[in-house]
Amino acid sequence: MDAQSGLPANWEVRFSRSRKLPYYYNSQTQESQWVPPTNTDGEKLKQYMASKYPPETNTAASGRSEKVRASHLLVKHKDSRRPSSWKQAEIVRTKDQARELLQNYRDRITAGEISFADLASTESDCSSARKGGDLGFFGAGEMQKSFEDAAFALEVGELSPIIESDSGLHIILRTA
């Protein structure tokens, strides 16, 4: 673990010139991703980002933007607003089954078994799965209220508890 950034070994923060955003790069595997890797020390990363990146490039630290960036993993159930997904034409699981499934996913992420992005890309019922669950930046009024409130309440790098919305059940990772 890097003592300054809180990132696991071989990971570093790089800056995307095209998107004008920081991202995470593994020098050993040459993998890059927009979300912090599994086993990152969120508090150290937050301090590192605030010290390394000026407010213009770090919207979470600037206080000048009313937008956040987050990724999510959605598990729909039969009572969801649209009980279908890219994975299944008709979702028939109950809300309790969805909650149990999502809690298992959350436990695996927090235990360091799998990264959020890897799990979201295979298990999320949202089309954002193809981007590792990344929803990009969004502001007030752009998401369902329960989801938005939870995302804005998180610190960068923090994972939410299970959040319920009309779309289903989510876990959210705030990324900026």
Question: Please, could you describe this protein's structure?
Answer:
The chain is built from five helices and seven strands. It is α+β, with helices and mostly antiparallel strands. It has two domains: 52 residues, Ubiquitin Ligase Nedd4, Chain: W, CATH 2.20.70; 108 residues, Chitinase A, domain 3 (Roll). The strands form two sheets. A four-stranded antiparallel sheet has the order 5-4-7-6, sandwiched between helices. A hairpin with a 5-residue loop joins strand 2 and strand 3.
Give a short summary of the structure:
By secondary structure, the protein is α+β, with helices and mostly antiparallel strands. The protein folds into two domains: 11-62, Ubiquitin Ligase Nedd4, Chain: W; 67-174, Chitinase A, domain 3 (Roll), CATH 3.10.50.40. The chain has five helices and seven strands.
Low-confidence stretches: 56-65
Order of strands in the sheet with most strands:
5-4-7-6
Helical amount among residues, as a percent range? 25-40%
> What is the string of SSEs from the N terminus onward?
EEEHHEHHEHEE
Strand content: 15-25%
**What is the C-alpha radius of gyration, as a whole number of Å?**
16 Å
- Major sheet size, sense and barrel closure: 4 strands, antiparallel
Mean pLDDT metric: 87
CATH topology of the largest domain: Chitinase A, domain 3
Q: What is the CATH class name of the largest domain? A: Alpha Beta
Number of domains: 2
Total E-strand runs? 7
Between the first and last Cα atoms, what is the distance in angstroms?
21 Å
Structural class: alpha+beta
Which CATH architecture of the largest domain would you pick? Roll
Protein name: Peptidyl-prolyl cis-trans isomerase
Organism: Tortispora caseinolytica NRRL Y-17796
Enzyme class: isomerase
Domain WW: 5-39
